[in-house]
Amino acid sequence: MLNVGVTGNIASGKSTVVELFKRWGATVIDADSLARDAQAPGNAVLAAIARRFGADVLGQDGTLDRAALRAKVMGDDAALAALNAIVHPAVQARRLELQQQARERGDAIVVNDIPLLFEVLDPAQFDVIVLVDAPVALRRTRLRALRGLSNEEADRMVAAQMPAERKRPRSTYVIENDGTLAELEKAAKKVFANLRKAAARAGVQNEAPGQTLLLTALDSKDAAAPVLQAIERRYRDAGMRVERTTVKGLAKTLKAGTPLSIVATAHAADGARAAWEAADPPRPCRLYYLSPDPDPIAVRLDLRPWGETRVALSEEDGAGLAPRADLL
Question: Rounded to the nearest 10 degrees, how much is the dihedral formed by the CA atoms of 114, 116, 119, 121?
Fold first, then answer.
């Protein structure tokens, strides 16, 4: 699993980029959403906030009055630090829990949407940091136009955050958002392509360098199965060589002596296994086959290995993509 932190100062366009990453297949963990859950009535976090900042930060219905709380911490570093000390441990614990669930599912890319990543966390806990940035003047204009803030309010919100100039050199990727939405999407897509490749490499880290993956189908119709296309894309993203063959051509390929990992569709499983067992000499291969998923809505695939190797596939676009290292 590739653990990605996405951050950006207010009005930078971070949320738009996160939504694009989600559309393209990433699992998203939203820090603001986790904070809202932690601050719900009945939670210890909300009670601690009321004790520290006064009961007037609560509305008549017992919920947090965010505007009232913001007024108390804005421009007061000590108050803001106290608030962070109350909220962030609970948010961090829940984020780690969700990350572990994603890892157990075999999710390929997890995007953590964290506005104050550099301010409150150690960036080293993420594999990749993506910063979305825009010029300060443009962000002020967006705050006034999109949120209806006064010049003074916009300036105060911008000044309350760590300057992006300090974050840029510590980020793996910086997405500039000083143009059109189409330009932002283009820049985000380029970064996401790199994230896919990094996740792919992580997913196949137990494969031998230069090894070939052989996708085996029963016939040409079977070879068009979407799962094989997804697996092929993932391994190519990882920089590995991928070959396609039918069961009839498998014996010839094995005879060529290339060490292979073989992934076969369910229809080709018996024929692929027979060809592998009959190879002379036997090839040192990993042999996997994919059984059809009875639930068309489910995105997890059932991968049954030959031999003693336990293998599960991670997923993307509803299709298995790569051996999970923790189950090898």
Answer: -20
- Residue 129, SS3? strand
CATH code given to domain 2-203: 3.40.50.300
Residues β-bridged to residue 129: 5
Pair of tokens at residue 239: 């920089």
| Phi and psi at residue 108, to the nearest 5° | -80, -45
Helices (H), the chain: 14-23, 31-38, 44-53, 66-73, 77-105, 117-120, 136-147, 151-159, 164-167, 181-203, 220-223, 226-237, 247-255, 269-278
Closest CA to 247 of 280, 277, 227, 270: 270
Give the mean pLDDT per block of 10 residues along the chain (328 residues). 94 95 90 92 92 90 89 84 90 93 83 93 95 95 87 86 95 96 95 86 61 81 78 75 87 76 79 81 70 38 33 35 36
Q: Is the sign of the CA dihedral 124, 125, 127, 129 positive or negative?
A: negative
Phi-psi region of 94 (alpha: psi -120 to 50; beta: other; left: phi over 0): alpha
**What residue type is assigned to position 4 of the chain?**
V
How far apart CA 225 and CA 66 sit, in angstroms, is 51
Per-domain residue ranges of the chain: 2-203, 212-327
Q: Are 140 and 126 spatial neighbours (Cβ–Cβ below 8 Å)? A: no
Omega within 30 of 0 (cis) for the link into 284: no
**Which architecture does CATH list for 212-327?**
3-Layer(aba) Sandwich (3.40)
